[in-house]
Amino acid sequence: MKEQVVILGAGESGVGAALLAKQQGYSCFVSDSGNLNPKHQLELTTSGIDWEEGKHDEGRILAADLVIKSPGIPEKNPLVKQLRAKGIPVISEIEWAFRFIGNSRVIAITGSNGKTTTTSLTYHICRHAGLDCALVGNIGYSFARQVATDPKPWYIAEISSFQLDDIVTFRPYIAILTNITEDHLDRYDYQFSKYIASKFRVTMNQQASDYFIFCEDDEVTMQHINEFSIQSNLLPTSMRKEFLQGAFIKDNQMTVATADEKLQMSIYDFALKGKHNQYNTMAAGLAASVIGLRKDKIREAIQSFEALEHRMEHVANVRGVEFINDSKATNVNSTWYALESMTRPVILILGGVDKGNDYSLILDLVKEKVKAIVCMGVDNRKIHEAFQHTVPVMVNTSSAAEAVHSAFQLSDKGDVVLLSPACASFDLFKNYEDRGKQFKEAVKNL
Question: Phi first, then psi: what are they for 437, rounded to 5°?
C-alpha cells in the first residue's frame, strides 16, 4: 500500500504537488480552509484527486503518512502544531518535487530582493543558449507540476524562505542568495536571526561539487556566512573587490570568472539598468558560466533581456513626465533600490498594508530625490509621521486612478512618477499585479 499523502493548501504549489503524487501512484487528499480557484477544482476532479474546501477534515489529515504544506501556512497554525506533535513529516512542495527529478539539476535563487529578476534573467540566458530548462517555483509553474507534466534536465527555481523552511533533502547544483534584508519577520517571531538561517538553508544539502553564489557587498550575508557549514564552492559577486573566481564590476566593466573561463562585458550593454540590477546580472552571469554556457550567448542574453512587469517597468511618458510601475516593491528595501536608481526628481507613490516597515531606511534617499509623496492606502499615518519633516508636499489618495492623477498634477516636465509602495497591496487591491495593472491603466487614461 502506497503512503497516504495529504496536501494542505490548494494554490498553484498544492495542486502541482497533488498532480505529482497522483502520477507517482500515491493516494492523496487536498485540503484548503479557503475556497479553491475553479480551474484548480476542475483539475483535481478530472485527475481523480479527493479535495475539500472551506474546512479541514482533521481526522483524515492526522492519519497521513506525509503532509505537503503550502508556503503560506505558518508554523503557528493549530493543525501544523498537531502534525508536528504526532511526528508526521511535513515538507514543502519544492522538497516533494525534488524527490522525483532523477538526474536533473536545479539552480535555486533566493534572497529578500532581486530574486524574481535574477531567476528570470538566469532562465532567459539558459534558454537563449539552448539549454532544455523550465522556470519554476514562485514564478511560472509550481516545481511539482513541471516534474509531473513536463520534466526537464534543468530547473531554474525562485524559492522563498517559507519554502526552504520545510526542506529535507532538497539540493540545488547552484544556489544563489541575492541579499538578506528584514522582511516577513512576522513569520519568524520577529527574530531576524531566524529569517537569516532560513535563507541559508538553500546551501544545507549542497556538496563539494555544487556552487553557492552570494553577494560579498551584502553586510548581513557576510556577517552570518561563517555560522553555516557550507560545503559547496563559494562564488562571490562584488563592486568593491576583484576575484579569481566569482564576478565583479570595476570601471563599469563586469568580469565573470569561473574555472578557466573569463567573460567581460560593459555594464552599459546590460538590458537591466540600476545598480541593484548589476548585482542580479552578475549572479545570473555566474550561474550561466558555471554550467558552461557559451560566452557569446550569455552576452547576447544579458543585452536582450526584457524587464519584468511590475518591477521598475517603464509605462509611458506623458508630457515630459515618465511613469514607472514598481508595484512589486512590497517592502522598504525594494523601494530603496528603486529610488537609488533614480536620476531625476521623483513624485513617489507609497502605501498599502504595512508589514512593520522602518521608513528611516529610505529617509536620506527621499530627502535627496523626492519632491512629493502621494499616499495610496487605507491608513497612511505612519508614512506621514516618517516623512512630514522631509518632503514638502504629501497627499492622501484611495485608488490607483486618484494617485496617478494627483502625482501628474504635482509633476513638472522632466520628473518621474514612481509607484514603489514599500507595502503589501491587500487593502485596496487583490495583489501587487492588480495594483500595477490599475496604475498602468490610470496612466493610459491621463
Answer: -65, -40
Sequence ranges of the binding site? 111-117
Q: Is 220 exposed, middle or buried (0-12, 13-18, 19+ CB in 10 A)?
A: middle
pLDDT band at residue 177 under the 50/70/90 scheme: very high
CATH classification for the domain delimited by 95-304, as one of 3.50.50.60, 3.40.1190.10, 3.40.640.10, 3.30.420.40: 3.40.1190.10
Instruction: Give start and end residues of each alpha helix (H) in 150-229.
Output: 161-164, 192-200, 219-224
Answer whether residue 1 shows pLDDT above 70. Answer: no
In three-state secondary structure terms, 442 is helix
pLDDT digits (tens, 9 = 90+) for 287-305: 999 999 999 999 999 999 9
359/433 Cα distance (integer angstroms): 23
pTM: 0.78
Q: Which fold is adopted by the domain 4-88?
A: Rossmann fold (3.40.50)
Give the number of other CB atoms < 10 A from CB of residue 78: 9
Residues of the binding site for ATP: 111-117
